[in-house]
Amino acid sequence: MDLFIIGSFIVTPYKVIKDGAILIEGTDIVDVGKARDLKSKYSTRGYEVINATNKAIIPGLINTHTHASMSLLRGVADDAELMDWLNNKIWPIEAKLTPEDIHVGALLSIIEMLKSGTTTFNDMYFEMEEVAKAVEITGIRAVLSRGLIGLGNEINEKKSFKEGLTFALKYQDAADGRIKTMLGPHAPYTCSAEYLTDVVNVAKEHNLPIHIHIAETKQEKKAIEDAFSINLDNKGIIEYLDSFGFFQVPVVAAHMVWVDEREYRILKEHDVGIAHNPISNMKLASGIAPVPSMLEYGLYIGIGTDGPASNNSLDMFREMKATALIHKVNTLNPTVVPALEVLKMGTIYGAHVLRLDHMIGSIEPGKKADLVILDLQKAHLSPLHNIVSSLIYSATGCDVEKVIINGNIVVNDGRVTTVNEQEVLKKAEEHAKALLERANVTVD
Length: 444
Known about the structure:
Low-confidence stretches: none
Structural class: alpha/beta
CATH architecture of the largest domain: Alpha-Beta Barrel
Number of helices: 16
Oligomer: single chain
Radius of gyration: 21 Å
Strand content: 15-25%
CATH topology of the largest domain: TIM Barrel
CATH class of the largest domain: Alpha Beta
Number of domains: 2
Helix content: 25-40%
Shape: globular
CATH superfamily of the largest domain: Metal-dependent hydrolases
Number of strands: 17
Strand order of the largest sheet: 3-2-1-4-14-15-16-17
């Protein structure tokens, strides 16, 4: 589909173009500029013209860390600290998940993400073929990895490792190139140094990045020591991972809350991408990542929601606002992590974290046509003095009117065009109820 979009504001996010236009041919952005200039350069014949007057056009938002299928667990295990939440609540329920549960949960989350302006998400879970099918059906873009646990039964460890690699190789560039894959070792406290070394070696062999949780809680270092009977002495977790060459391949590190400044050099040297999850970290009381100092050091940080069971929402506009606010109050400095920086974290920085900034993350010729159009005719967005400020501090996912991915309109007038939303909602309710019954869990 070829599109000619004319809008009041185009946010690139390097600059704002007032009364701008975007020309899209097939899956790609061909030209961007003032509407009067593009109208004089091109005939609109053969293009579908989208009138985006009184609207803002922004790059598609990029959720750099989530577990989409956990939408079926939304609200069943709230108000608990991380290890209690995982060991006593989440993992016992997850043991009862079926492949169809995971597919329906992924569909539900993708609908929520699409309708709130997310065009790409980075997901780690299991039965990832079911998530990939949901991605293919809905038209969203995704980076997918099968979660790997390096503790417990050796047969299961080898089985999950084989499944993770098989999935990564099979689905790389699937769904018309919208799917990219990674290897997904869960965390340093569930995967030994030997296991992680094996993951790195396989990742190097097959040119695959790695997606992992790192330094999420203050107790993680002790958890590593206890799990593997080792003594890290004065090493931080990043130093521990670096000691056996973990960062030899591209890494997306989720959370990164408890990181020492002396470890920034390692992160910078290896261009480790960081996925910041402020709302999940607040909800689980895991702590506040040192984002201002990491940004100042030149590290690339994207924004993630984490899973809908530890956040309860996948709205990246909520997450961006939380990112802007939490670091101001934490440092008692209202100037840190300003609105424009947060918008970059939600778009182009996130694209860099996922190694996709050559394709997505900004509105410029040659990149994929992943765009979001927001309606500005809302009381909470009026008066409009600064479009970037309004996007971060005032806008919500409910302001999204259209979403375009790979040049295809997947949300139109606030409705997903690729799947039957009501049918998915009905299935999600049925599957969630049956899951809790199998797990013998009652929610108060």
